[in-house]
Every structure is written in C-alpha cells, then in structure tokens.
Design a protein that fits this description.
The structure holds three protein chains of three kinds. By secondary structure, chain A is α/β, with parallel strands linked by helices. Chain A contains two helices and twelve strands. Chain A has a twelve-stranded mixed β-sheet with strand order 1-2-3-4-5-6-7-8-9-10-12-11, with helices on one face. In chain A, helix 1 links the parallel strand 2 and strand 3. The N and C termini of chain A lie far apart (about 60 Å). Chain C has an eight-stranded parallel β-sheet with strand order 11-21-20-18-17-14-13-12. The chains are: A alpha/beta, B alpha+beta, C alpha/beta.
Chain lengths: ~260, ~375, ~500
C-alpha cells in the first residue's frame, strides 16, 4: 500500500491521485501542498483513507473523488471539503469550523461533539448523528441531512442546529428511534411527522417562528447550491421543530 | 476450567476482547470467486487489525470432497498431531489427509503444523437419527480441543475451510495461498486483540461444522452466553468471546430448528418497546416467546458479525449498532463489510450500498438451484 | 435478691431545658418508656432504640445512647452472651428475637466487585439509551418451535403462565398478622405502581387487597391460614412456603393477642387464638409429596405458576433440583439473613447459609442438569441495596425478594422487637392506635421512591457493564470478581478473584 501519490500542481491548485496510497502519505502530501500555498486540492481515487483534513486549520478547499475513510475532517477548523461520493463513519468528529459537503450518504456518528461549521449530507446518514453537538459563544454548528437518519439522531445534543429533510428511501422510516434523547440544547428541524414514541423523553415539539423560517430558508438555499439539488419539494411549514424542555434534564435524579 | 495446553498463550485464564475489521462476499448464483478478491478487500481495512490475527473462510473450496467433513487442524507439535490422528482414525473413515499448502511470508512467523483431513464418522460410532453425524462431529471437535494438547480444530464443515493465523489479514491470505482457491462465499477478518499476544487458534473465523463467524466488537454478555451453551454440551475453549456466536447459530438453527432470520432475532433481540408496540400480533407473540425463552442467548455489547454457512452469508450487528456494518449488492454478488471502502475496492460501482439498521440481519442465500 | 440482672441496653436522656412538656414522646413510644410527673421521665430499661420519640420530639430534647456501662472485657464471653445467660437464668425459655441475623458473619455480597467497560467495549448511557429490566418469572420452554405463517412464522409453544415484572425485584412474603394491614396495603399499592408483585406471607389476604390481584403472590404455608379457593386464585401465583431464612426448619407462632377481628377474618381462625404454623407441611414429608401439593395447587388455580420458598440450607442445590423436577415454576431462596417477625435467636443466628452462595450453587446445579429454563430463581434474605441486586442476579438469580429494606423504607429502625407487637412505627403491630400511625399511601410512596432509585442505579450498573438488558447480567459471573473472599468460597460461587 506504500505507493507515492502522483501530484499535478498548477499555482494554487493541485490534483493528487490517491489510488492505493496509504493515508499517512496522502495526508502528509496535502499538508505539504498547503504549506506551499495551494488552496484548492482535488484528491482522485480515494478509497478508505482515514483522517483526510484531520486537524487542518487553514482556509482550503479539498475535493474528494471516491469514498474517504473514517474521521474525515476530524478536529477540522476552517477547510471546506467536498465529497463527490459516499462517506464512512465519523465525519466531522469534534470539528470546530469549516464545511463538509457529502454528495452521497454518510455513516454513523457524524458530527460528534461538533462545535462549529457545517456538515451537509445529500443522502442518508446512519446512527448517532450529531451526538453532543454544542454551541459556544458565537459558534453554532449546523448539520443538514437530505435523506433519512438512523436511531439516536441528536442524542445528548447541547446546542447547534440539525435539519433532516428525509427525502428518498421510502422503504425506511424518516428517522429512527430515540430522536434527541438526552437533548438539552439546540434545535432539530424534521421535514415531516415523527411519532412521539420515537422521541427521547427530553424533547418537546414547538411551533415554528419567523426566526426559524428565516434560518431554514437561508440554510436550505445554501444546501441546495452546494449539493446542486432542487428543493422545490420541501415546504417550510412541514417542518417539526424539536427542542429540549430543559437545559438540565437530570437535575432531579439524585438524592443527597 | 481450561486445559493446561493453553499455558503457552494464556496470561490469565480469561477470554480476550478484540476489535476488528470484517469483510465478506458471496455469489448468490454460486459462482466461484477467487481468494484474491477477499484479500484485496481486507487490505483496505488493514488499520482495523493490529497484526495479531487474521483469517478467512471459504465455502465451495473442496468440490472434489464436497460430501466429506473437511477438518482444518493446527498442531503445536508432532505429539499432538499423532494423538489427534489416532483419535480421528478411531472415529472417522478418512479419505484424505495432507499438510495445508502455504507460501512463507515475512509477516507470518512461527507457524504451527497445519493439516487438513477429509472423512466421515465411522458408521458404527453413530447413533440413529438424522442429525447423528453432525452431533457426533461436534462432540469430536470439542473432544479434540479439550483433550489433545496444543491441538485445535480450525474448521469442521463440508466443502469449506478456515485459514487463520497470527498476522495481518492480507499476509495471512497470501501465506495460505488463497488466490489458488475459488469459493462462492468468502469471509475475512483482521483482528485487534487487546491484551494478549494473540494466538493462531484465537484468530477468526470461528467455526463449528457449517457455521463460521467473523466478529468485530466485544460480547459483554459472554459469561452468560457461555454458560447457556454449556447446558447443551458446547465447551468454550478458544479463549475468545466470538466462539459463542458460532455455537449459538449451530444450536439455534441446526439443533433447535429455528429459521435463520429468527436465530438473528434471538442474538440481536428487538427491544420490548418495539415488541410491545405491535401489541397482540402473531409477530409480537413470536418475538416475546423468543426473548423469554432465549434470554441467555441474547448477545449483548457492541458487535458486527459476518456469518458464513454453506447456503449463504449473514451480516448482523447488535441492537443499538455499536459496531459498523455496510452492505452492497452488484448483480448476484452480496457484500458485507465494516467499511464501505473495503467493498468499493472489489466492487467500485455497486448497484446499491446501504447501512443495515441495528439488529437487522442482511441475509444472502444461494439461489435454489445454485 | 435482684429481680432483673440484665442491665439496660440504652439510656434515654431528656433535656429538661428544651422539653416543652408536650408529651408527644409519651404518646409515641410503643414500649411505655416515658411518663410524666411534673416533668418528663424515662424508664431506660424499656427502650429498644426505635427512635420514634426522637423523630417526633419537636424540640430535639431526647437523646438515646448505648449504655456505656463497662463490662470486664472477655473475648469469648461478650456482653450479649452474658446477658443471654442472665435472661435465661431469670426466666426459662428460648430467647426470642425479630428481623434478620445480626451476627457479624462474612457477607459475600460485600466481597464481590462488579466490572465495567473501558475502551474495548463501550459503556451505555442508561439515561438516554434503552435499558431493559423486564423480567419473567416462571417456567420457560427449552426451545421455541415455529411454523411458517403468512410469510412469517408463528410460535407453537409460547411460554405460558409467566409473571411479567418491570423490575427484577419483588416484595417478600410478610404475613398480615406479623405486620399490619397498612403495611400490606402499602406493599400492594407500591407493587402495582412499580409493575411488580408483593407476597402475602402466610396470613391470608385481607378482602381490601383483592383488587390488587395482578400484583400479588399468595402464600400457602404449613398453617394454611386463610387458604381457600378464592384466596388461591386471588393472585398471579401461589407460593408454597417450606421454610424461611430467618428460621429454617421451624414453624411460627403468632400470639393470640395479635389475632384481632380483622386478622381473625383473614386467617379464618377465631379471635384471640394462637396462630400456630407447624414446622413442616404435614402433607409434605418427602419430595414426591411436594409434587403432589404443587399439582394440587395447579389444579385449583388453572395452572398458575407455583413458587416454592425454602430457607437456604446446606444441601440447597440438590433440594432445588428436586423442587424443579417436582414441577415448581419458581424457587424462592431465602438466605440466612432473611427477616422474621419472631424467631428463637439460636435459629435465626446460627442456621442456614448465605443466599449469595445458595444462588450460585443452585444456578450451577440446574445448569449442569440442563433444566435451568424450568424454573426462575428468586434470591432473598440479605438484599440491602441495588448493588446486592446486581450481584445476586450476576450470580444467577432471576430476581430478588426484598422484605427488610421495604420495612426500613416505611420507618423500621431494626430494633428487632417485632414479636412484642409494640412497634411504635405501626409496622409490626396489630394495636389499632399503633397501626393507624402508618399511612399506606405515604408508605407506598416511600417504597416506590426506594425501588425506583434502585432501578436507576441498576441501570447505571448495566450501562457501565455495556449491556442494555438485565438478562445479559443474569448468571454472567464473568462480570464479577471477588476481593478478600477465601479461595474455597470463590471457587464454589465460580467467580474469579480480582486481578484475574
């Protein structure tokens, strides 16, 4: 697996063929290109390489052709990643800022502990997406999922915004069980209806307000542009707005 | 609890938790797939293993002996081999026996003696009844594993075999010359055991008769699953939690006659919340009966497994999906793996790729005529 | 000559500066300690340290101290032994006591440690993810048989007559007579709220409690008090009480003073008659006789599950195997720390074995015979906390029985004087003025709080273990380790020592 990547560099742009390249070399090459001033990098032939853009703090655009491996954009703080295929588990793990756009579907535990930036997934996502997302000062993380989601969507959510459009895949439920279980901050918008029995005990349904509509219009326009998809089928008033009823859901659980 | 023969490997007498990478491919038409394919798939998820165990199982690899039990056995020394062969010839009519061909590989060191034998139980040893030969073989395997020092049966099914070693999966595959074999189902495993040096018998797949299991995760319920199986004569001797999975499939399907999908619903049982929501339906009654009766067979804790058997392949993960599992289909081929990239390596453009839900088995079955 | 050589165990001090002479202490003490003659006086010799006066004194003017009276130390003749001799020399008879064994025998629960996940498997968060405690008591089939049906499957042999519990905990049998009707009411109300069951004990079931029938196990003991066809069908199961952990091998004696109109009606015996429970069931002198009674009860109840309660004695594993084979659906193991309303101290303190060991050997025995599915095992007699519940289940119990902890939740101070009928807390008494002190709704709420707290704790333990269903802990001794337990006991209960 120790093939060296083939690099074509033109000024601020570069193209790397990652076929059969081990992740450490690939990621090292990306860092070197960035050090040399390159701000637009295309990775071809990616398949399973882990940690792409892990911990990068510069404003750089990385386009990924193929299926990147786990922990794509972990701890990332600024870059924009575009995946023209599916992504695996752990996308945007503890990410601080920047943006990750996945054209296809993504796996489990997307945006774990995410503190800022945006993750857009065109297709479905797996289990435990947006676990423990949180806002801090001016940072508000956002996850938008075009398809459907598995169980534990927004578990422990402490802040930020999640939008689930639920398009396609009519053979699957819109969202799995335990939606927003343990949620104590932030907002989840779901396009469609979710049964009360699927929600965590800490979540309540609230009416949409003008500020919600404004946020949804803006973020959906951005999502639509990034994913080159028409959202004419999405109706603003069809969103359920879910918020926790308390910032301290377990305050009464202990005795002293 | 365990025989002295384990002293070489066992620091303390407990089972060894392990994390891992899995991949499997099967042709529903029963078409032959080269062993090269599964090696290439496993190579992509190299980093899920740590070099302390890798292995494969192939179904359909011994068409010339397809009606004979194929015994893949490791011996630590010649004495074990002699003792085991004595036991084999006493109990079985052996048609063939030979060293398993290997290609020395720098990644595979200190191999034990690796042999395979083909045969059937001696008629006079068998009790009457349909399952007599299978039951006899299970007992024989348990007897070899527990009584012959340094000797372990890797596999004992028909027209199939397990190839496993201490090393990275791709090195193990090359060591055993898997590209020389063709199978309609391959499953592979790269192991990451957490607290012992790893040993050849502890690598995956685990097998009993027709059932092979590769496993990622740790079975937190191991203690009770093991004690439950012991009630039915299974002895968990391989110092790893995964073997209970193989024995559970054998027990539930072969001996208790449960259909495959229901066996999966015992091992990854639906939550009561789900069963209750169906109230008084026939299905709810069925799942209720399964949970109540087979409470001790619930496999709890994080797991993803790929189970191979002569009629197909199953992918299954635990009921809250704590380990990853991805499936794909392309024409007659079904793929299951820990990571999508391991599938895309050998099938760049599948017809469909999806992530199975928690506890929902992906079941691939050979077409009726295949 | 002195009439009484037994010195007071406790000294009661009244702070006369604080005392407002409200006389609440006089009203509250069930044992007649206090009197009033220009100021409050206390007869310390009567005090049992039940704290009723302390809790109800509005001025915190009462203090109870252990009598500091010095005795010459003697490591063999401790003070209690000397006092026992004085008592028996003074008035011939057995020394009677109440509640459970109070001698400092080794407690196996306190030498077991529970495992937890780190890295190789994830712990599960019980507050946010599903965590199942649902438990079934009763016989399960050995295997499930199915037939194809409508593209799916239909079960041919569903498990029948299992009692479904929301938690692996039931309230132990405590008879109406030994405890007050209000205690029974509190237990029934709490059992209903908690999704579990209470056990009547051997004194029958008061008519007022028949509406709780889905949450009641009725007991049939050697005295057959209040046992009639309605009663047998008034619960979800019938328990044959062979023995009790606090007094294995001996019967009971509820004095006639406790048999008032209500107890009389419930037990179906005349007012004021002693209620004597024979030591054995005189229709059970051997195991085949047990089978005969089990099936007699099944016939009478339309085949409800039958529980057999035994005290854990030395040969408990073989006995339990026989009980399973005699057709019982539940075996209730009552350890030597189990409570009682009255028992000779010699029996309570020196007979039987710990339930921890009994559960382990019974579970192993039934497994070795391949009949573990035939019966459920309940471990009782010494379960004090959710940790004990988890450990008992890991050793092999399906559920635990809780009696003493339930009484403590209602106010019991373990003064061990239940047999006097003077219980100041209104628990172990039939005196109307004392019984009225215990509000059943208040007591039920306390029971619900206690058991819900234990359930939360149990779920935390399961989550730490990385499992989300109680059945994955049940019999899973791999997740226990012993610390400071002797090698023989460790081997007998089949648990590895810590570090291995």
């Amino acid at each position: 697996m120790a093939r060296a990547p083939q690099i074509k560099q033109e000024e601020a742009c570069a193209r790397l063929d990652a076929t059969g390249v081990y992740y450490r070399e690939l990621n090292q090459n990306v860092r070197e290109l960035m050090a040399s001033g390159c701000r637009d990098i295309v990775l071809d032939g990616v398949n399973g390489q882990r940690y792409i853009a892990d911990g990068l703090m510069e404003a750089v655009k990385i386009t990924i052709n193929g299926v990147p491996g786990n922990d794509l954009g972990a701890f990332m703080d600024g870059p924009v990643l575009l995946v023209n295929d599916n992504a695996q588990d752990g996308v945007g793990n503890t990410m601080n800022s920047g943006k990750i756009v996945v054209k296809g579907h993504a796996g489990d535990v997307i945006g774990y502990g995410m503190r800022g930036g945006k993750i857009f997934v065109g297709g479905d996502v797996g289990f435990r997406v947006g676990i423990h997302m949180k806002s801090y000062r001016e940072q508000v993380p956002v996850i938008v999922v075009g398809g459907r989601a598995g169980d534990f969507f927004g578990e422990y959510m402490a802040g930020g915004l999640m939008v689930l459009l639920g398009r396609g895949g009519a053979d699957r439920p819109l969202v799995g069980d335990y939606l927003g279980t343990g949620m104590h901050g932030g907002t989840i918008y779901v396009h469609g209806e979710v049964a009360e029995s699927q929600m965590g005990g800490e979540v309540r349904r609230f009416d949409l307000e003008d500020s919600d509509r404004e946020f949804l219009r803006g973020i959906l326009a951005e999502f639509s542009a990034d994913l080159e998809t028409d959202l004419a089928d999405i109706e603003e008033d069809a969103f359920m707005k879910l918020r926790p009823f308390s910032h301290r859901p377990y305050g009464n659980m202990y005795c002293y | 609890m365990f025989g002295d023969q384990y002293s070489k490997w066992v620091v303390d007498r407990c089972h060894v938790p392990a994390a891992c990478g899995l991949s499997g491919v099967m042709s529903r038409d029963g078409r032959p797939v080269s062993g090269e394919t599964i090696i290439e798939s496993m190579r992509v998820i190299h980093d899920r293993g740590n070099g302390l165990g890798g292995g494969f199982a192939g179904y359909g690899i011994y068409p010339a002996f397809k009606d004979l039990y194929a015994m893949h056995i490791m011996f630590e020394d010649e004495a074990g081999k002699a003792a085991c062969e004595e036991l084999l010839t006493e109990n079985m009519e052996l048609q063939a026996g030979e060293e398993i061909p290997v290609q020395p590989n720098p990644g595979i060191t200190d191999p034990p003696l690796l042999w395979r034998y083909f045969g059937v139980p001696r008629g006079e040893k068998l009790a009457a009844g349909d399952g007599a030969a299978d039951d006899f073989m299970v007992r024989l395997v348990m007897r070899i594993n527990t009584t012959v020092p340094g000797t372990f049966v890797f596999s004992s099914g028909k027209n199939m075999g397990v190839f496993k070693a201490v090393g990275f999966a791709e090195d193990v595959g090359e060591f055993y010359r898997l590209p020389d074999y063709e199978a309609y189902t391959w499953i592979g495993h790269g192991r990451f055991p957490t607290n012992t040096p790893g040993w050849w018998g502890g690598a995956h797949p685990f097998n009993i008769l027709d059932w092979c299991v590769v496993h990622n995760g740790e079975i937190s319920s191991y203690g009770i699953n093991k004690r439950y199986l012991e009630m039915f004569g299974y002895e968990c001797t391989l110092l790893t939690d995964t073997e209970v999975m193989a024995y559970l499939f054998d027990l539930l399907i072969r001996r208790h006659g449960l259909p495959l999908e229901l066996a999966c619903k015992v091992i990854a049982a639906p939550f009561w919340k789900e069963i209750d929501s169906d109230e008084d339906t026939e299905e709810a009654g069925l799942y209720r009966a399964l949970r109540i009766t087979y409470a001790s067979a619930l496999v709890n804790g994080p797991f993803a497994v790929i189970v191979g058997h002569s009629r197909g392949m199953i992918g299954l993960n635990d009921r809250i999906k704590l380990r990853p599992l991805v499936a794909a289909v392309k024409d007659d081929l079904l793929y299951v793996s820990s990571e999508e990239s391991a599938i895309r390596q050998i099938c760049p453009r599948p017809d469909r790729v999806w992530a199975p839900d928690a506890g929902e088995p992906v079941i691939g079955e050979l077409r009726g005529d295949a | 000559m002195p009439g009484n050589m037994v010195t007071s165990e406790f000294l009661v001090d009244v702070d006369h500066q604080r005392c407002r002479r409200c006389k609440r202490c006089i009203l509250n003490c069930g044992f007649g300690v206090f009197d009033f003659q220009s100021m409050t006086t206390a007869d310390s010799s009567k005090c049992v340290a039940c704290h009723r006066c302390v809790v109800f004194c509005p001025e915190e003017a009462i203090t109870i101290r252990r009598n500091p009276l010095a005795f010459r130390e003697h490591s063999s003749w401790d003070v209690d032994k000397r006092k026992a001799v004085w008592k028996q020399a003074q008035s011939p008879g057995m020394i009677l006591t109440g509640m459970g064994n109070d001698l400092p025998w080794l407690n196996v629960f306190d030498h077991l440690l529970i495992d937890a996940c780190q890295v190789t498997n994830p712990s599960i968060d019980p507050l946010r993810e599903p965590m199942e405690l649902r438990t079934f008591l009763g016989r399960k089939p050995d295997r499930v048989e199915v037939v194809p049906s409508d593209g799916g499957y239909r079960v041919q042999n569903p498990p029948e007559n299992n009692i479904e519990l929301d938690i692996p905990l039931i309230f132990s049998g405590m008879s109406y007579g030994s405890v007050s009707l209000n205690v029974h009411k509190a237990l029934a109300i709490a059992a209903e709220k908690l999704g579990t069951v209470m056990n009547t004990g051997e004194g029958g079931l008061h008519q007022e409690l028949y509406p709780y029938r889905d949450h009641i196990i009725v007991q049939c003991a050697s005295g057959r008090f209040g046992v009639h066809s309605d009663y047998l069908n008034a619960g979800v199961a019938v328990e044959i009480k062979i023995g009790q952990g606090a007094k294995p091998g001996i019967g009971g004696h509820l004095p006639g003073e406790k048999i008032g109109r209500e107890v009389s009606g419930t037990r179906m015996i005349p007012v004021g008659t002693d209620a004597l429970s024979p030591a054995p069931h005189h229709d059970i002198y051997s195991i085949e006789d047990l089978r005969q009674l089990i099936y007699a009860l099944k016939e009478a109840t339309g085949y409800k599950p039958i529980s057999v309660k035994i005290a854990t004695v030395h040969n408990v594993a073989a006995i339990a195997s026989g009980i399973a084979r005699a057709g019982a659906d539940i075996i209730y193991l009552d350890g030597f720390r189990g409570g009682t309303g009255a028992s000779p101290a010699v029996i309570r303190d020196h007979v039987g074995i710990p339930v921890e060991i009994a559960v382990a050997v019974v579970d192993a025995q039934l497994r070795s015979e391949g009949i573990r599915n035939w019966v459920s095992i309940i471990a009782a007699g010494g379960v004090r906390s959710s940790a004990d519940v988890a450990k008992a289940i890991a050793l092999g119990a399906d559920a635990v029985g809780v009696g003493t902890a339930a009484l403590i939740a209602m106010g019991c101070r373990l003064c061990q004087k239940c047999y006097t009928g003077n219980c100041s807390w209104g628990i172990a008494t039939q005196k109307p003025e004392l019984v009225g002190r215990l509000d059943p709704d208040w007591a039920a709420e306390r029971l619900v709080n206690l058991v819900n707290s234990w359930s939360l704790e149990l779920k935390e333990v399961l989550g730490a273990l990385g499992v989300n269903a109680i059945e994955s802990l049940r019999g899973n001794r791999e997740r226990l380790r012993s610390l400071g337990l002797d090698a023989a006991t460790t081997e007998i209960i089949d648990v590895k020592p810590a570090g291995r």
